[in-house]
Amino acid sequence: MSSNDPTPPHAKPDYQPPPGRLGNLSIPQQHTLDKLKKEIKQEGWFIEERMDDSTLLRFLRARKFDVALAKKMLYDCEEWRKSFGVDDIVKNFDFKERAELDRYYPAYYHKTDKDGRPLYIESFGKLDIDAVYSIITPERHLKAWVLEYEKLLGIRFPACSKAVGHPIETSCSVLDLYNVSLGQFYRVKDHLMAATSIGQNRYPETMGKFYIINAPWAFSAVWRLIRPWLDEVTVNKIDIIGYDYKDKLLAQIPLENLPKEFGGLCECAGGCSMSDAGPWHTDTHKHP
Fold first, then answer.
1. H helices then E strands: how many in the chain?
2. d(CA 154, CA 46)
3. I want to staple 168 with a disulfide (CB 3.0 to 4.6 A). Which of 1, 6, 161, 264 is the partner?
4. Element at 141 (helix H, strand E)
5. Which of 88, 29, 19, 80 is nearest to 56 (CA)?
6. Residue 165 and residue 116: Cα distance in Å, rounded?
7. How far apart are CA 54 and CA 3, in angstroms?
8. pLDDT of residue 6
9. Beta pairing, strands 107-112 & 118-123
């Protein structure tokens, strides 16, 4: 099957891939994909298990289908993977601090939105940075972040794709800023910048929708600081909401999937933030 064939046989009949994705490539986009793959192979750094057409297209979309820019972005990503030790993190990293860290900085995947995408929730307002870094070093915290991205691509997306019957390549995120102070942002800005850079440059085009809820009036100052870190495509996916967010979230997230603290009905045993509930627990996909 060529990369621009119709949608896979397991896909839902009414599913139409978004533009620039497998099954919905223009002729120039298909030629660009073929050219990128050919050049990488000729240069000897093509890695088949990590550079399938869907992945190459993520980098191409991130660089507006400019082959030279996408190839540089992918090459830089591969060099970063080596220097950061991503393969070793995937195989050997033991996130032993997770349960204790959850008390001071809940950040977790939990079920799916109405489009079948993994739902990611981060309660920034509960952050106690002194407690966090008494539990985990900044370096290990960043490694845990990278591990979650690897699990997103290697486990969550494939499981969600199987559950809905068509490719899932992006997530839906909720960032809760309830009771956040400017001081909290400034104290963790280095971590936020590093994490943002990794997400945007090493795992491009994985963000679908991003809701920032309970945004206080002072967030406008923080947003002016954060926005330059982000490309315009990312900025356009972010919806900043104040305290009246429930209807907007429930328009995208099923009531039964949204944790009760955000206006939903879900109350997982032991807490939603530690349950890791989602279709990835009923799928046969293994750790990447």
1. 14, 5
2. 18
3. 161
4. helix 138-151
5. 29
6. 10
7. 9
8. 37
9. antiparallel
Q: Which tokens go with 141?
A: 């915290």
Q: What is the pLDDT of residue 11?
A: 46
What is the helix (H) or strand (E) element at residue 186, kind and residue range?
Answer: helix 182-187
- The contacts of residue 218 (CB under 8 Å, 6+ apart) are 181, 182
Helix-strand-coil split of the chain, %, nearest 5: 50, 10, 40
Ramachandran angles phi, psi of 121, nearest 5°: -125, 135
- Short-list 27, 20, 87, CA closest to 54: 20
Instruction: Give the span between the Cα atoms of 165 and 12, in whole angstroms.
Output: 6
- Cα first-last separation, the chain: 24
**3-state SS, residue 108:** strand
123 and 106 Cβ atoms separated by less than 8 Å: yes
DSSP code for 238: E
| Contact assessment for residue 151 and residue 288, using Cβ atoms and an 8 Å cutoff | yes
* pLDDT per residue of the chain (288 residues) written in tens, 0 to 9: 334 433 333 446 688 999 999 999 999 999 999 999 999 999 999 999 999 999 999 999 999 999 999 999 999 999 999 999 999 999 999 999 999 999 999 999 999 999 999 999 999 888 888 999 999 999 999 999 999 999 999 999 999 999 999 999 999 999 999 988 777 777 777 777 888 889 999 999 999 999 999 988 777 777 887 788 777 888 888 898 989 999 999 999 999 999 999 999 999 999 999 999 999 986 444 444
CA pair distance 46, 51, nearest whole angstrom: 7
Joined together, the tokens standing for residue 164 give 């809905």
Tokens in use for 187? 């104290």
